[in-house]
Amino acid sequence: MVWEWLEYGLSLYEPAFHIYAVLWIAWILSRYTVVEVPGLKLILEAALYNWTAVLCFPIYPIAFSIFYAVRFTLNTYIKWESKGKVSIMPGSDAVWGTESFANACNFTSLYVLEGVCDPTKIERRAVDGLVEKEIDGVKIYDKLKWRAGTRLYYPVWERMDKTFDIKRHIRFLSDWSGDGRTSYSEDDVFDEISKFFDHPLPKDKPQWEVYIVPKYVYNDPDKTGNYYALIFRIHHSIMDGVSAGFALQNGIADYPPSLSVNPLAPLKISMLQRLMGYVAILVFGLRDAVRSFTLFESNCFHGPKLTGPKKLGWSKPVDLNSLKAMKNITKTSTTAVLMSALGASLRNLAIRKNLKFPTRIHASLTVAILPYPDMKPQNRFTG
Predict the structure, then answer these.
(1) First CA to last CA across the chain, in angstroms?
(2) Distances in Å between the alpha carbon of 68 and those of 63, 152, 301?
(3) pLDDT in tens, 341-376
(4) Which positions ≥6 away from 371 have C-beta within 8 Å?
(5) Rounded to whole angstroms, what are the CA distances from 30 to 45, 47, 290, 360?
(6) By CB distance 3.0 to 4.6 Å, which of 29, 102, 202, 273 could disulfide with 198?
(7) How distant, in Å, are the alpha carbons of 92, 108, 253, 284, 300 from that of 306?
(8) Phi, psi (rounded to 5 degrees) for 118
(9) Is 156 in a helix, a strand, or coil?
């Protein structure tokens, strides 16, 4: 009986395999033929990937059932064993859980402010405006009291509410450097950031820190006023850049800066544009995802293990009007213009260093998935 059902199932698949063979032949011809039809190879590749997914469809329910059953069982055990203090990270946080020296999953931000530094006020604002801030009775930044770790080979969050100490997170830059200084020049600050930039954050506490520079001295002799600086270091599993912007705007700043784009506002796109976006994901999403995850390349800029240290500094101001003009003249996107500029910069660097410049470099762009549902720390970026 089982064999008969198996034969019947395979008979249903026979036409699908015929179509699969035709797609393979068509794709090979489009790839190696002398005559090229614009867009044909892309369409055939997308069709080939999608049809492969259709043929593998019976595998998905079994694979996903096993995966989520194992995850649920382990998460239940971890919660029980830790008395509710530890739980497995959601995937959007866990993707940032793997890190090593020179490849730390932290993002570092430097903010220079005009005025006289008041460390006590900064610490109090971090507590009242972030760590203990409540909206409708919910502490929206409670995640700042969680520590990223690993249990049973799974990235996990561990609650550290009872041992949390704000003084271990709001510190002076001299606490890191050990030189006892209160005044740092612009170059000094970037030198110190370069020293810790490649190091993962300590794992004995929630992985975020704010370093205070009581007196920040610009290299520009014309800037002679009083300035101080704040250096934020945050593990990416805790939040992404947009969430960090929310924290700065609504929790730290005395006068919240206005944003050119409100991440909480619904996107102003038509139903047709939304539909076309979903169609593009449906048709080309699998092909792009597989190609990205299976892309292995090695050149003078990509491939060897990172060793550090990284050199940091301010970029020159970018003229947005010129950027828009180039975008309009070339009839491309702002991203395309910036990526072209990056490619030209890498090429010039390779020439100066007498390195062999590759004919093609692949890059992954990060895009925020808007709108954000709320201001809570979260990760909503995709590549």
Answers:
(1) 48
(2) 9, 15, 38
(3) 888 888 898 889 898 888 888 877 777 888 898 889
(4) 263, 264, 265, 266, 267
(5) 10, 13, 20, 21
(6) 102
(7) 24, 18, 35, 32, 12
(8) -125, 90
(9) strand
DSSP single-letter state for residue 163: T
pLDDT by residue (tens digit) across 195-233? 999 999 998 999 999 999 999 999 888 888 899 999 999
3-state DSSP assignment of residue 135: strand
Give the count of beta carbons closer than 10 Å to the beta carbon of residue 226: 11
Q: What tokens does 240 get?
A: 């992404």
- Supply the angle between the helices 40-55 and 271-293 in degrees, to the nearest 10: 80
Instruction: Tell me the sheet residues that pair with 210.
Output: 170, 232
Place of tokens 């760590």: 131
Q: Is 172 helix (H, G, I), strand (E, B) or coil?
A: strand
Torsion 141-145-149-152 (CA) sign: negative
**Measuring CA to CA, which residue among 232, 285, 246, 237 is closest to residue 370?**
246
Do 305 and 298 meet the contact criterion of CB atoms below 8 Å apart?
Answer: no
The Cα–Cα gap between 143 and 305 comes to 32
The arrangement of strands across the sheet holding 154-159 comes to 86-88, 154-159, 146-151
Distance CA 238, CA 93 (A): 7
Burial of 253 (0-12, 13-18, 19+ CB in 10 A): middle
Angle between helices 2-32 and 40-55 (to 10 degrees): 170
- Give the Cα separation of 343 and 308 in Å (integer): 21
Contact 233, 201 (CB under 8 A): yes
Structure tokens at 193: 């950031």
- Tokens standing for 294? 């299976």
Token digits for 229? Answer: 């600086």
Task: Show the low-confidence residues of the chain (pLDDT under 50).
Answer: none
Residue type, 178: G
